[in-house]
């Protein structure tokens, strides 16, 4: 399945969550057996050689866990605060209006483990940059990330590259 085929499966919803935004909806891709399988396979091909895959809650869990299985490596869930029943390490990061926090269980990452980040979409890069730093703080080596969708006009991939992470995406969409 080509990038154009994948792009055609992803639905664009205008004016969501607010006027002027073109929301890129992966729901149809998740429901499309061949498209979903192709997306997982193509993400995995880009991440050969990693020792673990990390994904951010929630859609990063879908793609990240599947890619980890395909690669035969472990999956590290990066969670919202208060979701893990053990001692965690966390990082706060800025949003457009306010702040948020990500957490993980550091016992799941042996020091020096080569971890790739996988998520459905990179927009401004705030969450992905925070995840990379959190993983590094926990002892991981993070130099690669792969996304189903890149919104290059929002600068997230550029921001993540500035944090020394190679970025790859299956498809990109211009505009917000």
Low-confidence stretches: none
Instruction: Round the Cα radius of gyration to an integer and report it.
Output: 16 Å
CATH class: Alpha Beta
**Largest sheet report:** 5 strands, parallel
Which second-level CATH architecture applies?
3-Layer(aba) Sandwich
- What is the CA–CA distance across the termini? 25 Å
CATH topological fold name: Rossmann fold
Q: What's the mean pLDDT score?
A: 96
Overall helicity: 25-40%
Order of helices and strands: HEEHHEHEEEEHEHE
Approximate shape? globular
Global structural class:
alpha/beta
Q: What is the count of distinct domains?
A: 1
Beta fraction: 25-35%
Biggest sheet: strand arrangement: 4-3-7-8-9
Number of strands: 9
Per DSSP, the total helix count is 6
Report on the structure:
α3 packs across α4 (59-71). The protein has a single domain (49-172), classed as Rossmann fold. It is an alpha/beta fold and 176 residues long. It has helices spanning 3-9, 27-30, 33-46, 59-71, 126-137, 156-162; strands spanning 11-14, 22-25, 52-56, 74-78, 89-95, 98-104, 114-122, 141-150, 166-172. α6 (156-162) links the parallel β8 and β9 (166-172). The strands form 3 sheets. It has a 5-stranded parallel beta sheet, sandwiched between helices. Strands 1-2 form a two-stranded antiparallel sheet.
Summarize the structure.
The chain is α/β, with parallel strands linked by helices.
Question: What is the secondary structure topology, with strand pairs?
Answer:
Elements: H1 3-9, E1 11-14, E2 22-25, H2 27-30, H3 33-46, E3 52-56, H4 59-71, E4 74-78, E5 89-95, E6 98-104, E7 114-122, H5 126-137, E8 141-150, H6 156-162, E9 166-172
Helix pairs in contact: 3-4
